[in-house]
Amino acid sequence: MHLYTACMWHKMIFFFFFFWWLKGKGCYIFSSICLCFGILNSCLLFWNCWETETMGNLFCCVQVDQSTVAIKERFGKFDDVLEPGCHFLPWCIGSQIAGYLTLRLQQLDVRCETKTKDNVFVTVVASIQYRALSDKATDAFYKLSNTRSQIQAYVFDVIRASVPKINLDDVFEQKNQIAKAVENELEKAMSAYGYEIVQTLIVDIEPDEHVKRAMNEINAAARLRVAANEKAEAEKIVQIKRAEGDAEAKYLAGLGVARQRQAIVDGLRDSVLGFSVNVPGTTAKDVLDMVLITQYFDTMKEIGASSKSSAVFIPHGPGAVGDIAGQIRQGLLQGAAVEQQNLL
């Protein structure tokens, strides 16, 4: 760009020189043409100087933007730090701008691969937020040639010295301690160069893909084991409750059967007593035979009344009732005899 500007200056001087020379020779047409070219070249030169911010240099002025400082030198030696605004820069006596230094907050993301204590390789991503100090602008501009490489080297050193002392599971829990260690080391190192470390963050910890898959499988297996235990406990509770319900139902059913049979016995006793009183000369055997025959015919009536009943038939007939009655009496007599022998 500076070569282009110099050429423009030379062409402008050339056109104006020929304008005066041709005008002195009386060649007004050619001199007018040279004047037009000279004016056009002057316009292009001033426009180029305006676009490349060299217009101010032509008038010994320089502009410094906000959140930026300029380093002023005189004949190659540091002279002053220019704050934001417009400043007088007499280039004719050797003053010039050596460079600009931004005071804005900057961020550098550093990816560092290292090994944990349990021999697992991980990639740690650290985010460093830093800025130059205005009162130490000379140190920040002259002492470091590549600030980002310097910060990256310190981050590598601290992370590769801290992470190998920790197991993989603990790295995720202690990332704040790692970030604090990196920040302290950078603060001590970079303050001498005019930079302030605002904050250091460990934004990501990435183990190897196979390690991540294995960790996920371990977690899934542990959760499945817990789920299986919970399911077994639930089934155990259901079976216990079902057994308790069955036991209670059987107990209540037994009470109902016992009460039913007690009611039958009471009814039979009352029937026998009443029949013996109302019909003289009858015995308990006659009454019991008549009751059994009545129940027999009632049962046959119920079986015949249902078209879809399932029944098991045994030899029956009016004489079968007498056989059943004899079996009942025989059982009662044998039971009485055994009880009498036990008493003796």
From TrEMBL:
Annotated keywords: Coiled coil, Lipoprotein, Myristate
SMART domains: PHB
Domain annotation Band: ranges: 59-219
Pfam families per the UniProt record, alphabetical: Band_7 (PF01145)
InterPro entries to which the protein is assigned, alphabetical: Band7/mec-2_domain, Band_7, Band_7/SPFH_dom_sf
SUPFAM superfamilies: Band 7/SPFH domain
Name of the protein in question: Hypersensitive-induced response protein 4
Species annotation: Capsicum annuum (Capsicum pepper)
